[in-house]
Amino acid sequence: MPLVAIAGFDPSGGAGVLIDTAVFRSFGFEAAAVLTAVTAQNTRKVYRLIPLPAGFLRDQIRALERDKVPAGLKVGMAGSAENLEEIGRLLARRPDVPRVVDPVFRSSSGQRLDGAASVKTVLRVLRGNASVLTPNLAEAARLAERPVRTISEMGRAAAVIFDRTGVPCLVKGGHLPDHPVNLLFDGRREHRFPQKRIADGLHGTGCLFSAALLCCLVRTGDLTAAAEAATAWTHRAIRAAARTGHWPAVLPPPPAVRPRI
């Protein structure tokens, strides 16, 4: 059974379904993909984005479902509000598998990637329809409608997002000014996963992490253990890219992840 990436196509290979499926395969999973949009971009800038029609997105999903049952779903860029609604219907049909949603709103160069979807629409579509959300600082600020610039503000935003969606929230803190920290609020308490800063400006690290998180979650069934393992694995991948000067670099072996008792 494959892990399915639902996201856009980045011809540079550093983000979207190309990096998602590369991560899935590096963990030993079968990989499949559903395209939401095609882009003209490189590792520095998105020049143009063309969302695929929601009906065609639905056709892709139905074709895959007639063939194989997914073992897990990873959602990235929706491309349009209509596509977001279609993705929401798929997520609602698959409560039995891990579902990682990376709520991508803008590219690092500022290009809008979600069409005209409002925060209210995003929260409604995602409510109860995912295993975990993985916003970065800017995305968490938008979903929580409050500033997110510090670790304490990350925790408050994650709690607000959980209250609004009923879904655990892991805020990615790679852009914190001091020491990067990923912070998970699981509905009861915070879990912090500190990192060491290696390099700035790498393209697609959010996709890399959320894809790794899905792999670890499918393997262990434990969100906290999966978040810890995915954080460590992503750190190794970024370190390899910084060392070689290539992105994406050869992906490191998957972690040995076990449930927390």
The H-and-E topology, N to C, reads as EHEEHEHEHEHHEEEHH
Spans where pLDDT lies below 50 across 5 or more residues = none
Give the name of the CATH superfamily. Answer: Ribokinase
Strand residue percentage: 15-25%
Rg over C-alpha atoms, rounded to the nearest angstrom: 17 Å
The total of beta strands comes to 9
Percent in helix: 40-55%
What's the CATH architecture name? Answer: 3-Layer(aba) Sandwich
Remind me, CATH topology?
A: UDP-N-acetylmuramoyl-L-alanine:D-glutamate ligase
- Compute the number of helices: 8
CATH top level is: Alpha Beta
Strands of the biggest beta sheet: in what spatial order? 3-2-1-4-5-6
Sheet with most strands: 6 strands, mixed
Structure overview:
- The protein is α/β, with parallel strands linked by helices.
- It has one domain (about 5-245): UDP-N-acetylmuramoyl-L-alanine:D-glutamate ligase (3-Layer(aba) Sandwich).
- Helix content is about 40%, strand content about 20%.
- The protein contains 8 helices and 9 strands.
- The chain has helices at about 15-25, 55-65, 80-95, 120-125, 135-145, 150-165, 205-220, 225-245; strands at about 5-10, 30-40, 45-50, 70-75, 100, 130-135, 170, 180-185, 190-195.
- The strands form 2 sheets. A 6-stranded mixed β-sheet has the order 3-2-1-4-5-6, sandwiched between helices. A 3-stranded antiparallel β-sheet has the order 7-8-9, with helices on both faces.
- Helix 1 (about 15-25) packs parallel to helix 7, helix 2 packs parallel to helix 3 (about 80-95) and helix 5 (about 135-145) crosses helix 6 (about 150-165).
- It is globular, with a radius of gyration of 17 Å.
- The mean pLDDT is about 90.
